[in-house]
Amino acid sequence: MSDQQMAFYIDLAACSGCKACQIACKDKNDLDVGNMWRRVVEYVGGDWTRSGDAWVSTVYAYSVTVSCLHCQDAPCAEACPSAAIVKRDDGVVLIEEDRCIGCRYCEWACPYGALQFDDATGKMTKCDFCADYLADGKEPACVASCPMRAMDYGPLDELRDRYGDLAAVAPLPDPSISRPAVVFGPHPDSRALGSTSGRIGNLEEV
Amino acid sequence: MSDSGFGADTITRTVLGRRSFMKWSAAAGGAAALAGGGLGFGLQWADRAAAQSDATVIPTGCAHNCGGRCAIRAWVEDGRVTRIETDQRPDSFEDPQLRACMRGRTNRERLYHPDRLKYPMKRVGDRGSGEFERISWDEALDTVAAEMTRIMDEYGPESMYNNYATGGGSTMRGSVNATRLMNLFGGRLNFYNNYSWAAAQWATPYSLGTDLSGSSRDDWVNSKLILAWGFNPAEMIFGTNTQYYLKEAQKAGARIIVIDPRMTMTASAIADEWIPIRPGTDNALMDAMAYVMINEDLHDQEFLDTYTIGFDEEHMPDGIPSGNSYRSYVMGDGEDGTAKTPEWAESITMIPRDRIIRLAREFAMTKPAALIQGTGMNRRAYGEQPVRGGINLAAMTGNIGINGGWASGMGLCERGVSVGGFPAGENPVEAAIPVYLWTEAVLRGTEMGPEDGLVGVDRLPSNIKFIYNCGGNCLVNQHGDINKTTEILKDTSLCEFIVVHEHFMNASAKFADILLPAAMDLEQDDLATTWAWGESLISFSKAVEPLYEARTDYDICADLAERLGIGEEFTEGKTQEEWVREAVEVTEEAYDDFPGYDAWREEGIYVPTFDEPFVAFKDFRDDPDEHPLDTPSGKIEIFSEDIWELDREGLPAVAQYVPEWEGGPWDPLFEEYPLSCMGSHYQRRSHSTFDESPWLDEAMPQRLFMNPVDAEARGIEDGDMVRVFNDRGEVRIAVRVTPRLVPGLVDLPQGGWWQPNGDGVDVGGSVNTLTSLKPTPGAFGNAQHTVLVEVAKA
Questions:
Q1: B102 and A119 in contact by Cβ < 8 A?
Q2: A173: which chain B residues are within 8 Å (Cβ-Cβ)?
Q3: Does domain A6-70+128-205 correspond to CATH entry 3.30.70.20?
Q4: Residues facing residue B309 across a β-bridge
């Protein structure tokens, strides 16, 4: 196991919002409806104005796929009263289910809504970075699924060298809260952190 | 309002009280037990790492009719599929992985879905009531064989019809089995056309002599500009990896402009720019672009003089009155006397005139450039026109037959992997109807003639009396005007017997007299080529035995053949796997590097290597005298004398803008129904397949998409339940208010399952509750995107 913080890279300019990653994750992890370790947010803005017989559009849209971002300062782990959430040497944040008491404090602590309660077991669940695949030298299921090849993973420092250090766009939360292990490639229309020029267009889906 | 962790504008610090979980195993009941257990929870990451080592990985595929055909690797443990992976080969531009999309990744959920049809059933209520009773396979097949025999004897082979069915996209798919069975049994009424490309496949050869007008996709990196005109591979796929090739072209320097009424995923994730257009007015934009090019002398006159006829009056066939060239039409020197100026087009297309001018200049002056058309436009009232109109622009800019160019039109490619098929046998019946008119042939087949597109005979001796619907949903859900269609089908004195093979109780299944449970891809040996470009050969190995009493289409038809006395002719003594082996013999002979049947089955994928991109019409471009096109003149026919001679309304000999019925304000219906309604290809389904999936319903629920301008005018807010209606029917559905489509258009993605409530209102969201059966003038193709509706808060 690497002792470098593992991270995701998402090329927002290529993410179409197709959700292959979301479903690949659900299939691998047997997630029923209601539990999505990876979700895809559509951010949409702009409007239409009439100009003579024409309509002029300033509409823009982009998609952001989000899972647990295995934060460097994982607030979920800090919030857990039973020390069930551990951060491994490679930065991957895992839930030890037998220690989880289902109090859901972590759920409130996570800025990304990454931790999700499983009614059936009474435990919290979340993305484990496909730790089993990592151990086998395989790509995480989401990364390997992307039809647009918009995802990558690896040590955070290496991803930053390759892709820059953008850690958030609208509508994501401020990365200073938890220092997420993620690098985004910008979309030509992506709006800066905190922008309210657009809105989440697919709220019911996330 | 959110309970999802995402606030309206930014992510908040909480997630849940999320939606209640679907109690999968409880819902599945006995089915789950039969299937060996449903999906389950509760493993820790460490347990999972241990669990995977026991899995056997079976290479297979996902072959529904989305426009893909992708590689699937099914993990099987204790006779149960436990995971779906996709292509695991190295990924490169030269040989990209055939990655399954979200639909393909739900194949396990689909396999173990509690609603699967589990045993044969016979209808016990009125046809279409959905009331069935379980019967044995023997009773089911005896009944079907007896009815086939009775109807064949009574009405003859022209009364027997094998309905268009593309739920499966593999070689051994249901429809081919039914075709072979019926052909061997004495024949059936043929159909021509399909529900996808009727007008495009009809129109393209009039201009280019073939519908194989596409180059290979690895050539797109040579383009400097790509106009993706109604072309949306990110959602409807149009060949596994097509969206990836388009993105690679952009990375290589191509500017990509999407022209579409919707800001599609292609527009938002691949394109540099989106030009929204009023649906059904593409030719007005094309004509105005041509006007700008001619007016500013930006067109390639030398190419037009050498390779085309019909552009100007100097290059027209003999005997055609002057004023009928494309140039005359565009410049206002034709019959209508109207110059097709950007101002003229602005009022029709809703695109600002300045934007039209810039687009025309950019397309004319950027070399090479590719105008790649999608086929949604061809499923409209005058669907033949944009197909040939795109070719006009490709010709005017000299982009045909060169690297980085594109001839436009249908755009299929002649390069693909060589492989055999499952032979359908010879049909002794000559008569053929256009597929979209099959309901007419049920209702009044004997009255149909050439005016309805009937070919092969002058008149039909019989109406359709027997329908085999084998793995398709065009019997009801995907055909036009469902209320009229079901009225015809409910009358058992018209079509006397209907047999359906299905996986689920969809709308077509409900109209069966005998309903047979079919096996899925994961339950049989098969093969498929990747769709459209067909460059890869995917092997399907059986991952698990068919669940419940489901059987393969092949086995079902083989047993029917036995009862009909043609058992040996049907099977030729072969198993399904032996037919697969035989189909691949062609591949073995064609390629030196084919690894052999067994190795291919183990690997799962074979892709022949090509030294360079294939460029359509390159030989014609290099030497038009030596390699003429397969058109009457041997040239690109901007003016088609053949179409001129057809002399049909709405079918001009040079492609041009024809105002649609149910198009815009010019139609009297517009006053009552002022919104255009299209049924886009939603990624959540492959046509109507996958509508049953809870995972996909969660990911992309069926909604009516509506522009805020139109919603506000009707007091409609995001999430409201609305009524969508016209004279043909009414749909009740929740609305998604989004600016991602032009004002005046609503989008009810096609394929939602028709579910009439007690008042006949469709609460499942099938756009075909609203569509028309009126065909296009050239191909007699479906015009299912040309629809006017009104929307009101429910």
A1: no
A2: 10-11, 13
A3: yes
A4: B637
